[in-house]
Amino acid sequence: MKTKKLLKSVGINSVAWIISIILITPLVLIFINSLKSSQAAAEMSLRLPDSIHLENFLTVIKRGKLGTAFLNSLTYSVFSVLLCTLTSSMAAFVLARNRSKANRIIYFIIVLGMAMPINFIALMKVMQTLQIINTKVGIILLYASIQTPFNVFLIYSFVGKIPRDIDEAAIIDGCSPFRLFFSVIFPLLKPVLVTVMVLTFLNTWNEYILPLYFLGSSANWPMTLAVYNFFGMYFRDWNLVCADIVLTSLPVIIVYLLGQKYIVTGMTAGAVKG
Amino acid sequence: MATRKNYPAYFLYGALLLYVTLYLLPGVIGIGYSFTDWSAFSDTTKFLGFDHMFDNYIKAFSDEKYFGYLGNTLLFTFVTTIAKNVLGLALAVLLTKKVKLLNFHRAVMYIPAVLSALIVGMIFKSILNPADGLLNSFLKVFGIKGPQWLTNPKLAFWSVMGVDIWKGMGYIMTIFIAGILSISPTYYEAADIDGAGEWQKFRSITLPMLAPTITVTTVLNVIYGLRVFDMVYALTNGGPGYATEVLYTGIYKEFGYGKYAMGTTLSSIMFVFMVIVGFFLIRAMNRNEVEE
To answer: Taking the model in full, what pTM does it have?
Structure first.
C-alpha cells in the first residue's frame, strides 16, 4: 500500500514536471539564444552559449528603436488603464446601485461587448471623422473603449458585494455623489480595481491589432509592433530577434509575477460561483 | 433614499461615450456600409441599390475564398475549444493533487497565456522551422524526419491550432483549478469511504460539479476562437495560399487591398452572429443569478 502511494506520488510529480518543461522550453530557448553570437544562434538550439553576448540587448535597443517603442507602450498602457478604470468604475457603481429599467438595458448592452467583434474598417471611418486616426490619443481612447465591457462586468459584480448601508450612512452625513464615490466607495473597490488595472495593462501591452490598423507612423509604434518589424528586417540574426523578444516580454512577465494573485482573481471571476 | 440623485446618470457618460462611439457605433454603421460599394479606389461611396443591396453578402457566402475563411474560423473555434477544455481540465485535475512545488507548476503553466500572441508566433516560427527548428531537430534524434509544419497546406492550420492550444490551455486550467477548489471536500471524503477510485470520483463528482465552469470556459473559448487574429497573423498570415486564412486575417487583407465594403461585410456577418449568440448567453447567465 505504501509503495503504491509512493509510486503514485512519483508519477504525478513527474507528469507535472514534464508538462512544465514542455511549456517553458520555448521561453528558455529564446533566453539562451538572446545571449549568443549571431552564428551560434543561427541554429536556434538549446545548447548553452560558449560566450555571453550581452551587447545584443544594446544593439536591439539602438537598431530596433526600442526606447521610443517602450515609451509608446508605456504611454498607451498607463493612460488607457487610468482612463478605463475611472470611467468603468464610475459606470459600474451607478449601474449596480440604481437598477432602473434603463440602467439594466445599458448594462446589458455594455456587457454584450464582451462577445461583440470590432468592425475595424468602419472604426477607421469613425476615427477619421473624429480626427484621431494615427494619433496617440486615438489609440489610448480605443484601448480604453475595448476593455470597457469586461471591466464594467468585473466591477459591477464587486459593487454588489459592498453593503448599501455604507452609502446610506455617507449620504446622511451629507456626501455628494462625487464624495460618496471617490472617498467612500473607491477605496473599498481596491481589490477589484487592482485586478482591472493589471489585466488592462497586460492586454494593452500585448495587443497589436489596433496599432496595425490605426498607427501608420513607426514613431508611434508600441513594442509589439516594433519587435515584429525588427523580426522582418533581421530574421537572419536570431540572437538579436531573441534579445528583442526578451526585452518586450520582460515587463509583462514582471507584472504577471507581481500581480499573479489579482490576475487569477479576475480571470476566474464569474466563472466560478463562490 | 433618492436613488436617482445619489447615483447620477452622468457617472455613466465617460464609459458610454468611449464604448458607444468607438465600439458599438462602428459595428452598426459597418452594417450600413456593407450595402455600398465603399473602396479605397473611389472618392464616393454609393448604395448598391435595392436590386443589388445584398451583393456583398451573396459574394461572402458563394465565393469559395470567403466561404473558406468562414469554414476555417469555425474549424479553429471547434478544435481549440475542445482541446483547451480537455487539456485545461486534465492539467487542473493534476495540479489540485498532492504535487510538490504546486504554485511553481501553476505559475509556469500559466506563463504562455500572458505573453503576446505576436511574440508566441515569432517564437514558434523558429521552433517549427522545418530545417533546423527545435521540434524537427528533436524528432531527428529519434530518426523521424519532421514535416514542413507551417508551409504544408494540409498541415499548416493544424500547426497554428496546436500553438494556440499551447498558449491558451494554461488560462483555461487556471479557471478549472478555481472551480475544482470550490467543490466541497466532503463529497470526496464520502466517496473515499465508499471506496471509489480516482476515475469514479472524477466522473461522478468533479465533472458534474464543474458543469457551470465548463459552460464558462466554452463560452470564452468560442468567443476567442471566432475572433482569432493574432496567432494566425504572426505564424502564417493566412498562407500558404488561403490554407490558414480566418475571418479576421481575411478582413485585414481586404482592408489592405482597399476593398472596404467587402471587409465590412465580413465583419458584419460576424457582428450580427455574435450579438445574437451573446444576447442569449448573457440572458441565460443573468437567469442563473436570479435563481440563486
So the answer is: 0.88
